[in-house]
Amino acid sequence: MSGLIEKIGLQAASAPEAVAIRSRDKRVSYAELMSAVQQATAQLQSLRVESLGLYLDNGIDWIVFDLAALAAGIRVVPLPWFFSEAQIAHAIADGELDSIVFDLALPRGVSGSGAILQGYSDSRLQRIATAGEHSLRKRRAPAKVSYTSGSTGTPRGIELAPEFIEETAVSICRTIGHLGIESHLSILPYATLLENIAGVYVPLLLGRCIHAEPSPDIGLTASLGLDPLKLRASFNRVLPESLIVTPQLLDLLCRLADSAAIAPGCLRFVAVGGARVAPAMLQCARRLGIPAYEGYGLTEFASVATLNTPRDDRIGSVGKPLHGVKVTIAGDGEICLESRPGKTATENGQHQRIRIRSGDYGGIDNDGFIYVHGRKSNLIVLANGRNVSPEWIESELNASPLVAQSYVFCASGERLSALLATTASDAEIETEIRRINDALPAYARLADWHRLAAPFSREQQTLTANGRLRREQIRRRLPELLAFQQTAAPPVNGGSANFLLQETNHVQP
Fold it and tell me: Which of 186, 310, 366, 431 is buried deepest, with most CB atoms within 10 A?
């Protein structure tokens, strides 16, 4: 049995009636959770499942079947409901899925075979390949395969051993367990590895309560937009003590707190990741009573490698390495991550280290805090020899309440420019850019800016499924975007479109 399942079982034995999961009007105690996991494990084993897809919204069944897959020692592949049909089909084929758990219907184009088995809540488990169909293939080791939508749009599956995932979750527990957090509200989809590990496994290991609210209740849409009114209602109903958010979601929380739509006094810890966070945004959050702390990680390294905490905090950094993680800086400035000996999965009885070259530039200060400057592949080399990471300037722009989205580029080799999605007037934006430029070194200041006729979007192929900029596509379309904005009216405020989620890991394009 998985070590993680055993540890959760110990929580159930010590406090069986404690609430493990709440979802809408349903409550599941730790004893009931372990019983449901045992039942789901038996279902998986009866169907001879080898590779299970989770095509579910956040909720009880997602957690139950994810844990059951760990208990049964099979591969589990979360299928993000916000992926396109083509991306889902790719993940199903590439992941060699033989069964899928789904809530309303199987993904379009996928047909099932055999009996449909009832889940804990309203979900169904069904085979999509006959037992033994994969018998000619070499049986793969138990793992979680996380598919991320990179800049090309084709999902890439990243395989993680259960032992390494467990060790990461345990390390996070050691880092924040002293904070006394009793309840966690999941905002990000569980198909994002960060929320899965830090928002599900960590609370369960600590014996805490997870609020696994469906996306419609939180306000998430199919395009990963966010309805501020629904988020406000869920927050005020749950009064969570911890959250995991992206920089854009933190910006929204700040706006809600600033307008007194939410009272953040219930919060003890808000982890922020997925993209660079401007120091000004973190400072603003804390002034408003939101205890926001930046972290950093890669999907390949179980999503979390470093984290700021109330005990060890330095705004502008991404914190110190978790227990069992070693961070070094290569000669060219690239951040390298390594698990220390004895802290990773074993193979043939030998401990294996995990070593990752992150693809990010960064540094380490004398006190051990890690700093991330930007992606190597995105680096802008100016004619004067200076190197600038566009994410640095974009984070400062996106921290402004006047800017919904930004893309920094250099067309001539000498002058930095920005494409901005904004509803503010030209005069307001120019004043804001002057303020931001004053805080930047001379070589990193914006020389001009251009208004987008419409925000970047998945439909325009300028955002990934998770809301990350598709920089290469935007670069190719620059002449069109720059020409179109000259005559276009300012974009209409799209409400939820301003709060697209950023992806909770870094993936090579």
Answer: 186
| Per-position b or e across 232-255, b if 16+ CB within 10 A of its CB | bbbbeebebbbbbbbbbbbbbbbb
The CATH number assigned to the domain holding 389 equals 3.30.300.30
What length does the chain have? 509
Sheet holding 124-127, edge to edge: 113-118, 124-127, 99-102, 51-55, 75-78, 144-149, 155-160
Q: Looking at the domain assignment, is residue 324 inside a domain? A: no
The full DSSP string for 230-278 is HHHHHHHHH--SEEEE-HHHHHHHHHHHHTTSS-GGG-SEEEE-SS---
Q: CA-CA distance, 503 to 192, in Å (whole number)? A: 8
- Look at residue 117 and tell me if it is in a domain: no
Mean pLDDT split into 10-residue runs, the chain, 509 residues: 90 97 95 96 93 96 96 95 86 93 88 83 85 56 83 78 94 96 96 96 98 93 81 97 93 95 97 89 96 96 96 97 96 92 49 85 96 90 83 92 93 84 93 93 90 86 78 89 53 34 30
Distance CA 421, CA 456 (A): 8
- The torsion of the CA quartet 431, 434, 439, 444, rounded to 10 degrees, works out to 140
According to DSSP, the residues that pair with 328 across neighbouring strands are 336
Whether the predicted model's global pTM rises above the 0.90 cut? no
Residue type for position 210 = I
Q: What is the DSSP letter of 199?
A: I
**What is the rounded CA–CA span in Å between residue 34 and residue 29?**
9
Output DSSP code: residue 509. Answer: -
Question: How far is Cα 70 from Cα 243, in angstroms, rounded to an integer?
Answer: 25
